[in-house]
Structure formats: structure tokens, C-alpha cells
Amino acid sequence: MNKSTLLKAKLVGVFIAMAFSAHLFAEPMGDEKAKKPNIVFIAIDDMNDWVGYMGGHPQAMTPNMDKLANEGVAFMNAHSVAPGCSPSRNALLYGVEPYNSGLYPFYEHAIHKQLKQKYTSLPTLLKNNGYNTYGSGKIHHGKEYGEVEWTDYLDADHQPRAFAKDKGFSTNKKNSFRPTTNPYKEMFDHQVASYGIDVIKNKQKNDKPYFAAIGLVKPHLPFDCPVEFYDALPENITPPALLESDLNDIGKEGNSMRRAGDDKKFKANNQWGDVRKAYLSCIAWADYNVGRILAAVEQSPEADNTIVILWSDHGYHLGEKKSFKKFTLWEEANRVPFIIHDRREKETKKGRKVTQAVTLINVYRTLAEMAGIKAPDYVDGNSLVPQLLDQSAPVLAPAIASWGRGNYAVRTENWRFIQYFDGEQELYNHQKDNNEWHNLANHPEYKSKVEELSALLPKNEAPTVEEYISPWSIFGADTKRLKKVKPKSNEKDKKAKKNNKQNH
Questions:
Q1: Which of 141, 190, 220, 317 is labelled catalytic?
Q2: Spatial separation of the C-alpha atoms in residues 124 and 151, rounded to whole Å
Q3: Is the pLDDT of residue 390 over 50?
Q4: pTM, whole model, 2 decimals?
């Protein structure tokens, strides 16, 4: 057995041992059933479908997420509201679609002050209705640790990194694809997970229920994580299937969203393998920390009164459609892991899956209903509690993603339809074309399907919110006008603006 295979075997063994460290709990009786549930809210940054149970990449090492998907309800056709951190998290946490809020692009962090005056965020809703709310890591896009939302929040630090010699590469501080040799406890996500674990372990019987929001940053760039996870992967990483003529039937706006320069650079330097290996290793590192959190839940005194929800804010391109990163309306930039495990339900079968298309806009109403709290009337989306109980129950609204005003994707169980602000359209049949290589929108025989799906597009669009806007992220109908507008800001916001640009 070679060194890489041995390391992989050891690592997976550790994962599985942690994942199965639970002990059994009795069914709650009497008043126990009336308690509000604890909520463990695991947010993952930039994780696409390269997860074992989703089948996105054959070399993914995610035993803990796979186990959670098998025990809970896995939404196999789940998608982001927008393929970028800021609009995706704003929609989920404030409960409003971008086409209703006007929050289409990225914003400087100072915008949250005015958003909190207009909307009730999910943490605020829970805190105002009997919950202790704890946060760590990346939950909002931007550091939002105020008492309106949080009982307590860990402001973890990024420690200096030590890198393994002669492994991976970097072009700058952000575009780094190297394994680290730091002790785990120095790593940001390990600290974030440890804080959440302490919340879970320290819950006392008569305490308020807790909402533990744990925001893991990996696999967000830089793709740096402990060397053991990097070495556990084989040297040769399977590339995605590619078609040279893929983009020949794509219009100007769709092509403008691609990060084509990165793709060309990685190809020219023969670096795509290192990039993909580093990304997969960061996914394995995230899964390791998910396993630590799940083990704490399973061993906690209130394990049988706890809901675990896991989601990623959007997907990620690793060369598919000749693109790198997110920021497109294609499948790979939008499909995400999304799992809900209600541990109060004991008499349920394993491996429950929802194949209907959903987006993360439904998280707010779902958790509100599960906690027995009425969501504000303005909140978009629908509760997915019916799908948790019966995976074939029909989803009540289409899955819509946006990236710039006028640019929308509609995803159904078998189709993806995209319409851009300039009238260009794309249509993909996922029963035959999971790679989205063949745009059928202009084929006469698919005219009725285009009409059917275009009828699901938003009927009204809120104007783009222009205060605190990040000009680099503007796409769609407002591009020419807003890229010339200097965003509202002040001296206090300059540091936040710099961090926003570095971390998108």
C-alpha cells in the first residue's frame, strides 16, 4: 500500500469513527415533545456538488456529510438563490428573493445596518422568540456580531500559515492552493467548529433552546488546509468532462460571467490538477469539522430534541464550461449540498431524498415552522416541512436563481432555463445533458418548453439597491449605469470594503 493510499485509509477511518460515535436516546415523553428544538445551523462557503452523496466528483471524501444525508432528508436538487456569497446569504438570512429586495449583487458590509431596520433576520426572529443565538465563522457576508441577532459570537482569527514544502502552488495570498502544517487548533474552521461544539455540549436542561450557527469557510479560497487531507487524495485528480464546442451556443451576457482568464492560465501552466486537488482537500477538511459537530450533537443530553441543517451558499466551477469560481447561472455554480435532519423524528427510514428542485430561500420559513414560530408576512419561499414528512409532496414554487437584475435561471426536476436581461436564452435537459453542453432554447421543437419555463420568471423586479454596492459584481440590466456610480460609503467602511473585495 503506497503512502497516499495509507493516509487516505487512515483519514477515512477517523471520519467514520467520529461519525458513528453516537449513543441511543429514548423517545421524549410528555412535555418534552412540546419543547422548542435546538437548531444546529451549519453554513459552508463555496461548496459545490463534489460531495459523496451528491455524486459530483468520484474522489470526494465526505463520510460525515454522507452519513448526515442518509439519516436526514437530502435535497438532491437544491440550488442557491444567487451564485455569490453576499446575495445568497442576504436572501437566506433575511428571507427575501433578490428580485423582491433589490439585493442582486455584492454589498459592502455596512449595508446590514439598514437591512436590519427593514427586515427581521432569521437569528433575530429566533432570539426574539425564546432562543439563545450563538454564531461563529461566516454566517452573514460580513462581520455582523451585534446583540440584536446574537447572544454571543466568536470572532475567530486567521492565524499565519505554514505550508508543506513542494506541494501545490500559489500566485498570490488569495489564489493559493497549498497544504498547511499548522496544528488543527490554529485553523479558522477548527476554532469555529469548536465554539459550536462547546455551545452544544454546555446546553443545560432548563436553558433556553439554542440556535448554533456555525459558518465553515472552506472550501472558499485560498484552498489551503491541513496537509493530511491533501495527501489523502491521489496524485492524479479526475477532471470534469469537457466539450470544446460547449460555449458556441451561449450569448454575450452568459459568456461575460465566466472567469475565463483563470481557466486559460491554469490550462497553460498545467495547474488544473493542483487546483482541483486543493479544492477536494478543503472539502474533506470541512467534512472533518462537520463530523466533529455531528459527534457533539449525538453525544449531547438533548440530541433527541435537536435539528441539524447543513447548506452551502452556492456552487463552484472547477473548469466546467471553461470557468473558475462561481458567478454564473449554470448548474455547477448553483447546485449545493442541503440536508435537514430532525432528530426528534425517530421512526423514519434511512436514505430519504427529495429530487424536486428547491432553493435556499425556503430555509427561513422551514426553520420558523419547525421551531413553532410565525415568520414575518414579507418572507419569501415556502416551508419544506411537507417534503421532510413526505419526499414526494409537491414543492409549491419554482427554484429561481438570479445574478444581476434581469438575469434569471429556473430549475425544475429535469430542466434548467436561463433568460438574460438582453433576451438571450438557454435551455438544458438534465435527463440527457447534465453537463449543460447543448442549449436547446432556439430549437423549434422546444418552443413550448421555453414558454412553459419562461412563464415562471418573476413578474416584477425590485430596482437594484444602490447604496454600498460593490461595482465589480454588477451584472444584468443595470451594468452600464451602476458601474459608473460611486457607492455610498464612509471612512469607517473603508476597511470593510477592502476585506469584502479580498474575500468574495
A1: 141
A2: 10
A3: yes
A4: 0.91
**Alpha carbons 53 and 68: distance in angstroms, whole number:** 10
Q: Where do we find the cell 457533539?
A: 296
Mapped to the 3 state alphabet, what secondary structure does 277-330 carry? Answer: HHHHHHHHHHHHHHHHHHHHHHCCCCHHHEEEEEEECCCCEECHHHCEECCCCC
Nearest Cα residue to 295 out of 132, 73, 68:
68
Cβ–Cβ under 8 Å, residues 240 and 50: no
Q: Is 109 a catalytic residue?
A: no
257 contact partners, CB below 8 Å, separation of at least 6: 323, 327, 328, 329, 403, 475
Asked whether the predicted pLDDT for residue 19 surpasses 60, the reply is: no
**How confident is the model at residue 347, as a pLDDT?**
77
Task: Determine contact, residues 458/386, Cβ cutoff 8 Å.
Answer: no
> Has residue 30 got a pLDDT over 80?
no
CA dihedral of 443, 449, 451, 455, whole degrees rounded to 10: -150
Residue type, 89: R
Catalytic site includes residue 79: no
pLDDT band, very low/low/confident/very high, at 483 (cuts 50, 70, 90): confident
Name residue 150's amino acid: W
| Start-to-end C-alpha separation, the chain | 41
pLDDT digit string, tens, across residues 234-283: 999 999 999 999 999 999 999 999 999 999 999 999 999 999 999 999 99
